[in-house]
Write a structure and sequence with these properties.
- Belongs to the SCC3 family.
- Part of the cohesin complex which is composed of a heterodimer between a SMC1 protein (SMC1A or SMC1B) and SMC3, which are attached via their hinge domain, and RAD21 which link them at their heads, and one STAG protein.
- It comes from Rhinopithecus bieti.
- It is a single chain.
- By secondary structure, the chain is an all-alpha fold.
- Helices cover 62% and strands 0% of the residues.
- Among the domains are: 104 residues, no CATH class; 89 residues; 97 residues; 154 residues, no CATH class.
- It has 49 helices and no strands.
- Helix 9 runs parallel beside helix 11, helix 15 packs parallel to helix 17 and helix 21 crosses helix 25.
Length: 1082
Amino acid sequence: LVGASIPILDSTNETTAHSDAGSELEETEVKGKRKRGRPGRPPSTNKKPRKSPGEKSRIEAGIRGAGRGRANGHPQQNGEGEPVTLFEVVKLGKSAMQSVVDDWIESYKQDRDIALLDLINFFIQCSGCRGTVRIEMFRNMQNAEIIRKMTEEFDEDSGDYPLTMPGPQWKKFRSNFCEFIGVLIRQCQYSIIYDEYMMDTVISLLTGLSDSQVRAFRHTSTLAAMKLMTALVNVALNLSIHQDNTQRQYEAERNKMIGKRANERLELLLQKRKELQENQDEIENMMNSIFKGIFVHRYRDAIAEIRAICIEEIGVWMKMYSDAFLNDSYLKYVGWTLHDRQGEVRLKCLKALQSLYTNRELFPKLELFTNRFKDRIVSMTLDKEYDVAVEAIRLVTLILHGSEEALSNEDCENVYHLVYSAHRPVAVAAGEFLHKKLFSRHDPQAEEALAKRRGRNSPNGNLIRMLVLFFLESELHEHAAYLVDSLWESSQELLKDWECMTELLLEEPVQGEEAMSDRQESALIELMVCTIRQAAEAHPPVGRGTGKRVLTAKERKTQIDDRNKLTEHFIITLPMLLSKYSADAEKVANLLQIPQYFDLEIYSTGRMEKHLDALLKQIKFVVEKHVESDVLEACSKTYSILCSEEYTIQNRVDIARSQLIDEFVDRFNHSVEDLLQEGEEADDDDIYNVLSTLKRLTSFHNAHDLTKWDLFGNCYRLLKTGIEHGAMPEQIVVQALQCSHYSILWQLVKITDGSPSKYYNDYGDIIKETLSKTRQIDKIQCAKTLILSLQQLFNELVQEQGPNLDRTSAHVSGIKELARRFALTFGLDQIKTREAVATLHKDGIEFAFKYQNQKGQEYPPPNLAFLEVLSEFSSKLLRQDKKTVHSYLEKFLTEQMMERREDVWLPLISYRNSLVTGGEDDRMSVNSGSSSSKTSSVRNKKGRPPLHKKRVEDESLDNTWLNRTDTMIQTPGPLPAPQLTSTVLRENSRPMGDQIQEPESEHGSEPDFLHNPQMQISWLGQPKLEDLNRKDRTGMNYMKVRTGVRHAPPSRNRRERAELRPDFFDSAAIIEDDSGFGMPMF
């Protein structure tokens, strides 16, 4: 009865029956000491039946063989295919963790040494160690000796171990590992952990491992110890609650009258309280051992991840058992670690503190810590790691929420300006802080009274004024769009109160209310336009975020509702606003941005054409009143938007626009005639009349086709007069040039309208000359520019048509035709353009395989079709370069890709074929170079290499395939193809002893290429290099015998043959070299 009245608390939020199921609650005897179980606990009804002797022997045999498998991975299994060690069971994660722990507890009751040996090997194997602790080692050796022995058997070939291995399997292993430790303590909390054997052994082992020089041991044991400590803290918390309950029961029983007092119950309660206190003392001793033996040393470990584990767990302890841990003795470790050099650790500190400051009841205990470390926390809002800065701002917001007096005005101002940060998460967090500080209402009664008011007298009226003042007082930035975006998530209700904003602008202030200044009105209009844009477009402004994301259904509905709301409101109020502020250029330019966010169909569906007429009337007044370019461009853009053919209001707006243009064209023609007639006697009024009307027409001509008004004629007359007489004002010349420019562009649009556009239509003489000059300056950069332009066109096409391009479409054919024309610019001399063409292919291949298909590897990459464009350049590769590029391509291919023959894989098939065909023509280009056909024919007859030499050549060419397994040492191999060049032929026509020095060949010419190994592309691995050098030396000796050359000085080829050269296709290995083309070689 006593036990039944005590609640059982468990941090796992599971029911009591589930938490206690299978745990060792039976009153059993443990070797060497009486087990102190929880008093009054009934035996478990879910106890598993005792295993048969056969099953028991099989389990013990498995435990004795624990740890013989590979620690990093492949589980050792018994003959029946089942895992036989704790490590394997936990790694596979197929069994419920509670059943795994219950099985271990059962084995512990049978033989605690064997069970503990399995647990020890579990920790050893989880560290990635291949060694195994044997039973004789466990019984006869100290922990330090065991750890030393395991360190000697540690596999040092790889730095990976289970906690650091990538992949979902090992990520799940980490969570299983932590869960196992928590469940183990939970299931043992009533007896085994008090037997002074199991916990002493585990804590001693983990303490020794945590002090190891081996990172894997230190990391794994620290994580285990911290999770063990967390589980013990939960046990201690439950014991504390049970003690309090027992004490209350005891006091209640003792205060009863003597006749009603049950002495036996009092004795039971006293005994129970004593046992609970003894258990509490033992748990505290365990926690003290872990904290002082492991945490105090590892929270400042050299490895950031280990430090982060410690800080994360101490935060859990302080939140879970605040009475014992939330004090300065433990908080100081978090405070000190706020200065950690690694952002990961600082982030854990801030999140641990956030969990504490979220509970306002804990604020009194945090007061001293807040005063001590507040400055550091505020300074972390400017942390170089954005994630840390965001969490620091959120923590400062929690501190503000708990106590406004905790932060000074200076502290708040340090956070305020972050609403203008270009990093959106930082800005949004700062916006939440600003909202809490300035816009949160704290008086419920005042809120209820103000809520009944609307417009300028609504609760948002004062808040909007406050927002305007904040915006104006921001001395660092003037970006209203950034401010609105920062507050959008926390203050949407305020920012969407357009009714209140327009009333503040249109209505006169009530008695006793201070009127807004001109500067404040301008700021409010700018903020209002930004809120309209944010609501209509539903994405951050330019410079914030990574681009437009796809909206969810809920966000899309909100966007549509907001757009309808703002359209219905501003259709009515915008003409009034323009009328009031028509004389202010800045205000008008901002207000005229609003119609572009309208749903223009509402003009027709809502029968609001009269408001459209009012808007057009006000725009006309603005155009007639202003000559500022910003205002005129805004008016022109508004007319362009309203004239969209998809809306029924287009005819009405087009008539108003034509009438406006007619008036200004007529005025312009008359003013031009007057100016030209006056000549040099023209006064300022004549000049102003021409300039003002020309500015208006030029602004409109930019967005509207005004060619039917023939503005070009008078503009030409003005320019011609200025050239002939030189008396034309500069401003008129500039405007006349712009207007003429727009006239010509509109005429070009009409000429090209209706004809299919090709990408190469603009490929004229100017572009050709530009490419020629660019290629002369830097061949490689020119090639990179060409391939980049093709990639941009391809990306635009994919965005328009999607990833499944129609390869027969005119657009794809247009890109291929442009690529073909680009290829022609490389000319016929493949030697001089060799490196540039190879660079182009490298960039093209990387672009084609840049992204993987989200559907899986059996589907082609999204950019695979680009290979068909790239194949236009394959004919510009030399034969040996084709092999190298083909090898580089195969680096990106899987076996499945090579076997696919569907239509979607045709670009890959086509490109591969272009790299393995046409070899003979390329070889002839190497042999012939720039020599005449006559010389070539002589060489073919007299200079044909012997059969032995041809075999050497073929083998050498075969050895130039890309060897991706050996990229550490790369060297330029000699080109054995053909050694009997024109130089040898000339030597044969002279006496054998005559040595005539050859004239120095032109840099980059054929002889320089054939005799200079650094002019050649070679990606040979070291073994292939040595084999090639050996064959080359054989060929050279053979040539010496044939030509009679005995003591020739070492050639440049032989001197440079041993120089190392990295793989060109490894960007990290590119080096500079002054030989060859005078640029980085392959």
